[in-house]
């Protein structure tokens, strides 16, 4: 499995951007990625005042490479960049060693 991290810095971002990003994920982005071909899952993470990140896990090198190429070409114009006021500071591919599902299972929801 092939991972991809895309991270925006929130240092100096507008006040309330974390809630704006969370609302966008819940209202729009979650649905866009649910059922996406080639994608195993996506997780959105935030450390308020520090960073906002999308973690993607793809089924193949080809799926990751195609998404990364398309995303990188328009990274400065995606909704996250517009909300934060800057493009991502990190677009990093990585490999997954293993995934374990705990007793509580996996919950695919737009808000935790």
TrEMBL record:
Gene3D superfamilies: 3.30.70.100
Name the UniProt record assigns to this protein: Monooxygenase
Species in which this protein is naturally found: Nocardioides oceani
Lineage of producing organism: Bacteria, Bacillati, Actinomycetota, Actinomycetes, Propionibacteriales
């Amino acid at each position: 499995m092939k991972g991809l991290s895309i991270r925006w810095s929130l240092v100096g971002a507008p006040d309330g951007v974390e809630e704006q990003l969370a609302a966008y994920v819940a209202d729009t982005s979650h649905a866009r990625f649910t059922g996406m071909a080639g994608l195993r899952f996506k997780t959105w993470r935030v450390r308020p005042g520090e960073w906002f990140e999308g973690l993607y896990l793809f089924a193949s090198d080809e799926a990751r490479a195609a998404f990364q190429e398309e995303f990188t070409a328009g990274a400065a114009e995606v909704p996250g960049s517009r909300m934060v006021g800057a493009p991502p500071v990190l677009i990093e591919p990585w490999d997954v060693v293993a995934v374990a599902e705990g007793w509580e299972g996996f919950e695919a929801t737009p808000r935790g």
